[in-house]
Each structure stands twice: as C-alpha cells, then as structure tokens.
Amino acid sequence: MERKLFTALQGEHAQRLNDALSKQGFRRSQNVLYRPSCAECSACLSARIRVADFQPNRTQRKILRRNADLRRNATSPWATEDQYALFRRYLDERHADGGMADMDIFEFAAMIEETPIRSRVIEYSRPARDGGRRSELAAVSLTDVFDDGLSMVYSFYEPDLQNDSLGTYLILDHVEIAREAGLPYVYLGYWVPGSRKMGYKARFGALEIYKGGAWQDIGAPDDHTAELHPLSVDPIAEQVARIALPEARGTAD
C-alpha cells in the first residue's frame, strides 16, 4: 500500500518552500509537495543530473542528431487543445491502464496551470511536412524552475515517433537549457532500483540519487536494491523532524 508524506504548496513563500523541499527528495503535483514514505519500502529514490559533469554517451549523441530538426518553445503554464490531443494519444498508447488514463481536458488543464511557483511549458515541434504550413507538436514537458535547477514534472510525446527516443531527447535538451541558464541540476523525479519502467534514468551520466537523507552519486545501479523491510523507513515523526525548512524572512519596520 502506497503512503506519502505531503504538504500544501501555497502563499507568498511557495517558491522558497518548493526549492528547499525539492533538495530533500520531494516532488510537486499541482499545489502539493510529496515524498514517498511507504511503511516497509524505501525503493523510490529522487534522481538528478549534475549538469557540469554530464557528457552524452554515443547512443545519446545519435538521439540528439536524430532530433536536430525539433524546435523548442518555452511558454507560460497554459494548457492548449493541441497539447491535450497529444497527451491523450500518448496515454492511450503508452499508459492506457495507468492512474492518469481517465484524465479529461479540465483535469489536464489543472495539471498544467495550477502551479504556485515558477513553471514553464516547453513544447517541441517539427517543421511542417508534406507541404503543410503548420508545424507538428511532437513533445511537451511541464518544467519547474528551481534556484538550483530544472525539474521535469511531467513529459509526453507523440507515440508514433517512439523510434526517435523523444523521452531521452527531452532530458538531454533540459540539460542544455540548464547549462545555458547556469543551473547545476536537472531533476528527473524518482528512480526505482530494478524497475524496467524507471531504468532509463540510470543511463544518464553524472546521476545522483537522494538516499539516506543525502545526495550521492548513483555509482553502479545494480548495487542498489529496492529495500522491503519494516526498518527500512523511519517513522513519520522522525522524518518530519529532520526536514529543513527555509528560514522565515521578517519585514523591516
């Protein structure tokens, strides 16, 4: 049974709270910050790429060349019908039995637009083909901007272009965006040892995981196990006591 530790993300200090807790393994979903805290499992490990140390491997360089015609457009977090149509095609093909399979356009708009922090929708389009004038939306990423990096909240892409490895390309391009902006990290969400679905994250160099209350280099992915034991997770009260909150800033008289 899944269990999460979570808190509301709202008010004038939402950005600072998000920045602080994201460094401690939390993720954002609309106006909520959460971190897995299952009673007997500590398998979900937050992962991020060190931008300065990252170098694409041979396969990733091929993916960059294969998608060189994509055009990036970073916009405000505003949902469109084209985005939702792409989102539906992606879910129906890749995650038809997932928890988001029944999401309608209003729920999709809430996912994109309900953000109390600095967020962007980054669209990737291919030039018009077959004589058409309109470019084709190929991929979308909802991305948060932290004080120390970019967080890829949710990404989706055209399932008919699966052979182009767009999921990998989006991560590679976010590394480049972060590098250009002078941001040290790209946050990828959770990595689970032994999970085939999450295995792609471990293929990126300079990857760190948040484990045992600290960020550490992932090393050899096979050295990590999905711990399933009553003592693998500290009690909720102890977890909360160790959370470092941002210092309150008083106002001058």
From TrEMBL:
Biological function: Functions in the N-end rule pathway of protein degradation where it conjugates Leu from its aminoacyl-tRNA to the N-termini of proteins containing an N-terminal aspartate or glutamate.
Domain N-end aminoacyl transferase N-terminal span(s) in chain numbering: 2-62
GO biological process assignments: ubiquitin-dependent protein catabolic process via the N-end rule pathway
InterPro entries: Acyl_CoA_acyltransferase, Asp_Glu_LeuTrfase, N-end_Aminoacyl_Trfase, N-end_Aminoacyl_Trfase_C, N-end_Aminoacyl_Trfase_N
Name under which the protein is recorded: Aspartate/glutamate leucyltransferase
Enzyme class: transferase
Keyword Cytoplasm: yes
Family affiliation: Belongs to the R-transferase family. Bpt subfamily.
GO molecular function: arginyl-tRNA--protein transferase activity; leucyl-tRNA--protein transferase activity
Gene: ate
Entry-linked Pfam families: ATE_C (PF04377), ATE_N (PF04376)
Reactions performed catalytically: N-terminal L-glutamyl-[protein] + L-leucyl-tRNA(Leu) = N-terminal L-leucyl-L-glutamyl-[protein] + tRNA(Leu) + H(+); N-terminal L-aspartyl-[protein] + L-leucyl-tRNA(Leu) = N-terminal L-leucyl-L-aspartyl-[protein] + tRNA(Leu) + H(+)
EC numbers on record: 2.3.2.29
Keyword Acyltransferase carried by entry: yes
Subcellular location: Cytoplasm
GO CC annotation: cytoplasm
Main subcellular localisation: cytoplasm
N-end rule aminoacyl transferase C-terminal domain mapped to chain residues: 83-210
Record key words, sorted: Acyltransferase, Cytoplasm, Transferase
Annotated source species: Gemmobacter aquaticus
